[in-house]
Design goal:
Length: about 280
């Protein structure tokens, strides 16, 4: 009985639906005429709209923001045969932020103080092209992942020029793009492909959305684990050679010192014998 009352409470007139979704009554009627919105529940000659209508209009608005026209949106909904709420769940999983960090705003002056350089404009342009910063206005910039700036600042403090840091970041971005493409292709082939081949069954849509949500953290953990393993080997190999070279140099110097000492003792012994004669 309580569920019936809850459902009744969630029903909206077309004016209420417009207020809830931020769309005009005219647009809602237009979407209904075009077949984008299911028909309302009619009671006593008044049309009422429920949560599925709200979800459908939210989906339409978000897809329009992504550049889809209404014809394309209708085709997408019909082709995938998913209810709007499930489509919206999948789209929200795709749009979810990559991490828990919040973007942070920096002034031009603060960036120049943190990263001193003789070519501030060139360095700033490079950071923008790499996506480390986004321009808000002429004097303010947003860092989508502020921790990357913190790491860069620590490396600069260790003596590495910011230009060299950004050059390395560029290489890492290229490698990361290729790595990300590998994981996405794997997902498309083994998860999304079979889902599409089965006709996008509605019962599996929630599982697909969850799989998309897990894709980024799982791939990130895998990449980090592999990187730590490879990095440990590279450090051992590189610094192992350096230590051998240093140890070899010291050994050679000690050897030369022992040889010089032996020659000195031999000369002293020879002089002593000569004096004895």
């Amino acid at each position: 009985m309580a569920r019936a009352h809850d459902a009744q409470d969630q029903l909206l007139t077309i004016e209420g639906l417009a207020a809830r979704t931020g769309m005009t009554v005219r647009n809602i009627r237009s979407h209904r005429t075009a077949g984008l919105l299911p028909a309302p529940i009619v009671r006593e000659r008044v049309g009422y709209y429920g949560p599925e209508h709200v979800a459908r209009l939210q989906l339409i608005r978000e897809l329009q923001d992504e550049g889809f026209n209404l014809r394309g949106i209708k085709r997408l909904i019909e082709r995938q045969r998913l209810v709007s709420s499930e489509l919206l769940n999948i789209k929200q999983a795709l749009d979810a932020p990559a991490g828990e960090e919040r973007p942070q705003l920096f002034s031009r002056e603060e960036l120049q103080r943190r990263f001193p350089t003789e070519q501030p404009r060139r360095v700033l342009a490079q950071a923008l092209s790499l996506g480390l910063l986004h321009e808000v206005d002429d004097e303010h910039f947003e860092a989508p992942t502020p921790s990357l700036l913190d790491i860069a600042e620590q490396v600069v403090a260790a003596g590495v020029p910011i230009e060299d840091v950004l050059a390395v970041v560029g290489k890492v971005v290229d490698h990361s793009r290729a790595t990300g493409r590998v994981f996405v292709e794997l997902f498309l082939r083994d998860v999304w492909g079979p889902f599409a081949a089965r006709g996008y069954p509605e019962a599996e849509a929630e599982g697909i959305a969850q799989a998309i949500e897990r894709l980024r953290p799982q791939s990130s953990r895998a990449v980090l684990a592999i990187y730590e393993l490879v990095m440990a080997r590279e450090i051992d190999r590189a610094f192992g050679r350096e230590l051998e070279r240093v140890a070899g140099g010291r050994g050679a110097r000690r050897g030369r010192g022992r040889a010089a000492g032996t020659r000195g003792r031999d000369r002293r012994a020879a002089r002593a014998r000569k004096d004895g004669e």
